[in-house]
Design brief:
RNA-binding; 22% strand; alpha+beta; 4-stranded parallel β-sheet; 7-stranded mixed β-sheet; 37 strands
Length: 858
RNA sequence: GCCGCCUUAGCUCAGUGGUAGAGCGCAUCCUUGGUAAGGCUGAGGUCGACAGUUCAAUCCUGUCAGGCGGCACCA
């Protein structure tokens, strides 16, 4: 007899797993006919500390990995490090440490608590993206993309983060600010490397349909992000006033049906026509400069004020050469979407209407809502964007919108003025970063030969160790020797590319590298063919667009090159919620840590002085609010299994879970209760359980539990599985070992054996201790998953509720599957039912087999 | 503004077209040789609001309200 002591048991069993290499992944040959299962959690950035979010993420993956192992799968469950990135350089600048040393020390510091979590991981496959063995292979992949034209270099307007002194992808700009620094982003012109993700825009959308084990939400977000739209691309002929060389204005529209409602043509401030006109028009030049300044500011976007400049240029309407439209430069037109020019149809587009009202341009309705009168229908301050019939539109009159679009496109195409087109919001992925701590782009710039790839034999291009961080900007650019190399082609003095990759490149293929992380090619095709796709990927929803879209893109690019055999890297995706905690603020406005406050007489006070403390709300654990609970402290106090159990138990996995002391104590108590039942069981193996009454209820409960927990695991409802464990404890308690008959003891033994295996994915250390206490052979981690015996659920009698006019009035027993007429007779004969239908006419009786009877009277 | 999700006990959440549930918390009592405790019993619900479909709605449909998330001058 004794309490379960995680401090002794947990290290013991971890040592056993390590000694026996329990979680080593089998080679395909070893696996034989075991099916493969690849479960992966998004690998961590090595910040140096693990947090509760890691605990939750990796525990979830571990639950899946252990469950699938028990089911006989050959499981790949690896771990690595997303190790390049800004924080290492910030640490270098702030503390004078080298990014490399800082990163590897952090990895070492995080590896220990992760191992302490008891994760069923094959650690032999571990790598960090900053290992030259990894990024060297990444350089090979890039050169392959370059060879195929999927990587290219061009000058472009980029998002420049003035704090991090680097370029950001569009996806990394949030509300006009850098996603990491939070500083307002500036527009700059730079020559950058891009990956041609737009080449796969259609396929990335189409592929979403097949991802039926992804959250709808994430698929929707990706679809919106790619932003496909169908429309018409065509040109207006310039009628008058344009500089030479500009005899056309190319526009894109999704509403060709409204062409007869056009009242102006608008171009972006950076449109070539606008720039050409500005050369001889100072007022226009000033307007363009103003657009550039204001365009980035959040307040202006918020206000949404439309501003324009009439260029004096006119163009001819495509359907009527005599109809002239003015060309305006407008601040709300984006140069990098479509053609950077539009035609304005104020009656049916709110932006165009705002603009037209401000500058007093014509507003001609051409779509007539059903029931409206063509003679009197007008548009005031709200554009009409609903359905209707086309009018005021010559040959389009009377058509529905979709018909009119087709007709207008057909006419424009027949006239040779343009054609139907698909346009995407998605833009190519800029991957150049002006940083040191990233994968060097393996390119040499030669004054004569231009862009020259680093030859395969000279890879990897290693980062130099001797760099200085005393100034902002990229140390590679300032390095005295590193970048000066001879041109591989002509041998003349040349320079290395000093930009490094966006770290999202590193994480776009690591899952494929795990198939064989020591291969001397980027991806071991045979191993990747065996393991990919990842069967279950788990991570935060914050990566719904960035990481997951890049990974899907790169996998397609690699598949087209025959390097991998699948287009979709992640067959199943689960996005888990955050770990939150109440935040506490003292009277003087200081944030207090959870371990600095306590509840006294129902009020929160600070522990030291007993002064009242305000509970500010439940927020994501963060340093700034100081509402952080360190996993290591919890491991120390309650054990690893209690921490694992708690992050799985209180909320559905996709939602946020609120960390609380009461919650982890509840987890601790469940662990003790489970152990107490094993501890109370007499040693030795009783005979096989029989169906005698003394053990039947217990047998039913344990087999039902097996069914329920299996279902909970299959559907990612871990919190439900934990709730079922709680219920099982009540059943075990009502069938105690003390004074039990042999039949009950046998049923208990069976129930406990099932229970130990069922809890193993959740509380692996406790499960081993229980398994061992029960006298079962080997490790529970090697034991097969229990199967429920359906025969136990068969019952010969069912209990039915009886309703009268929809209200429950009685309960009757009837043979299982009894005929409706018999059940009806039993129900009508029931004393309680008689009472409720007395004096009324029975109008109808509804019998739902084995469930309920409803008697309608009146 | 557009799109999506959520709303069930004090809290965190299950659940089902047919008898409303769990954990935690709370209250009462028992135990104090299982003790950083254990146990018994109990209270607590207009299933966000309204309307519709149905013999029957917490569940299906619609409208509204509140909360959360994503996108946002994308032509």
């Amino acid at each position: 007899m004794g309490r379960y002591n995680p401090k002794v048991s947990e290290p013991h069993w971890r040592a056993r797993w390590a000694d026996t290499d329990t979680f080593r992944t089998l080679t395909p040959e070893e696996a034989g006919d075991r099916p493969k299962y690849y479960v992966l959690e998004m690998f961590p950035y090595p910040s140096g500390r693990i947090h509760m979010g890691h605990v939750r993420n990796y525990t979830m993956g571990d639950v899946v990995a252990r469950y699938k192992r028990a089911q006989g799968f050959n499981v790949l469950h690896p771990m690595g490090w997303d190790a390049f990135g800004m924080p290492a350089e910030n640490a270098a600048m702030e503390k004078g440490v080298h990014p490399k040393g800082w990163t590897y020390e952090n990895i070492a510091a995080m590896r220990e608590p992760l191992k302490q979590l008891g994760l069923a991981i094959d650690w032999s496959r571990e790598f960090a993206t900053c290992d030259p063995e990894y990024y060297g292979q990444e350089q090979k992949l890039f050169l392959e993309l370059y060879r195929r034209g999927l990587a290219y270099r061009r000058e472009g307007v980029v998002n420049w983060d003035p704090v991090d002194m680097t370029v950001l992808a569009n996806e990394q700009v949030i509300d006009g600010c850098g996603w990491r620094s939070g500083a307002p982003v500036e527009k700059r012109k730079l020559t950058q490397w891009f990956l041609r993700i737009t080449h796969y825009a259609d396929d990335l959308i189409e592929g979403l349909k097949g991802l039926d084990r992804w959250p709808d939400k994430v698929r929707l977000m990706q679809e919106n992000w790619i932003g496909r739209s169908q429309g018409l691309r065509f040109h207006f002929d310039v009628a008058d006033g344009a500089p030479s060389g500009f005899d056309r204005v190319e526009v894109y529209t999704t509403r060709p049906d409204t062409l007869y409602g056009a009242s102006f043509v608008g171009v972006a401030a950076d449109h070539p026509l606008a720039l050409a006109l500005a050369e001889s028009n100072p007022a226009l030049a000033e307007f363009i400069a103003e657009c550039r300044r204001g365009g980035a500011s959040e307040a202006d976007i918020e206000a949404g004020e439309k501003k324009g400049f009439d260029t004096g240029v006119t163009v001819s309407h495509p359907f009527d050469p005599d109809w002239k439209l003015p060309v305006w430069v407008a601040n709300f037109i984006l140069m990098d979407y479509g053609t950077g020019a539009i035609f304005g149809c104020p009656a049916h587009d709110q932006r165009d209407l705002d603009f037209a009202r401000k500058y007093d341009l014509a507003v001609t309705p051409v779509v007539l809502p059903a029931g409206a009168d063509a003679a009197s229908f007008t548009v005031g301050t709200e554009a009409y964007v609903g359905p209707g019939r086309i009018f005021n539109s010559q040959f389009l009159d009377g058509l529905a919108i979709e018909e009119a679009k087709a007709a207008a496109i057909a006419r424009v195409e027949a006239d040779g003025r343009g054609q139907g087109a698909t346009v995407y919001r998605l833009r190519d992925w800029g991957v150049s970063r002006q940083r040191y701590w990233g994968c060097p782009i393996p390119i040499i710039h030669c004054p004569d030969c231009g862009v020259v790839p680093v030859p395969q034999g000279q890879l990897p291009v290693r980062l130099p160790d001797d760099v200085a961080f005393d100034k902002p900007g990229n140390p590679l650019l300032r390095h005295p020797t590193w970048r000066f190399v001879p041109c591989p082609t002509c041998g003349k003095a040349a320079e290395r590319e000093t930009d490094t990759f966006d770290t999202f490149v590193d994480s776009s293929w690591y899952f494929a590298r795990f198939a064989n992380p020591r291969a001397d090619t980027p991806i071991d095709k045979a191993a990747a063919d065996y393991w990919l796709p990842v069967d279950q990927y788990i991570g935060g929803v914050e990566h719904a667009v960035l990481h997951l879209l890049y990974a899907r893109f790169l996998t397609r690019a690699l598949a087209d090159d025959g390097l991998v055999g699948v287009k979709e890297p992640f067959a199943g995706l689960f996005t888990q919620g955050m770990v939150t905690h109440e935040a506490y603020r003292s009277q003087n406005g200081m944030w207090l840590q959870p371990n600095e406050v306590e509840k006294r007489d129902g009020l929160w006070v600070d522990t030291e002085f007993g002064r009242p403390v305000e509970v500010v709300g439940v927020e994501k654990m963060s340093k700034s609010k100081r509402n952080v609970v360190a996993p290591e402290d919890i491991f120390e106090q309650y054990g690893v299994d209690a921490a694992r159990l708690f992050v799985l138990s209180d909320s559905p996995p996709e939602r946020d879970v609120q960390w609380s002391t009461a919650g982890v104590e509840g987890a601790w108590r469940l662990i003790q209760r489970i152990w107490a039942e094993f501890d109370a069981q007499p040693e030795g193996r009783p005979g096989a359980p029989d169906l005698s009454e003394d053990g039947l209820a217990l047998r039913r409960a344990s087999h039902l539990l097996a069914r329920q927990i299996t279902e909970g695991l299959e559907t990612f409802r871990f919190n439900l599985a934990v709730a079922r464990m709680h219920e099982m404890m009540a059943v075990l308690k009502s069938h105690p070992a003390a004074g039990a008959s042999p039949a009950r003891l046998a049923a208990r033994h069976e129930a406990l054996s099932i229970l130990a295996r069922l809890i193993a994915p959740f509380m692996p250390h406790l499960a081993e201790e229980c398994w061992s206490r029960l006298g079962e052979d080997g490790l529970v981690a090697e034991a097969p998953w229990p199967k429920a015996d359906p025969a136990l659920f068969a019952q010969d009698e069912s209990v039915l509720a009886v309703q009268v006019n929809g209200k429950r009035r009685a309960e009757i027993r009837a043979p299982k599957g009894a005929a409706e007429a018999d059940v009806e007779a039993i129900a009508l004969a029931d004393a309680d039912v008689q009472r409720h239908i007395a004096g009324q006419t029975v109008r109808k009786v509804v019998v739902v087999r084995d469930r309920i009877v409803n008697i309608v009277v009146g």
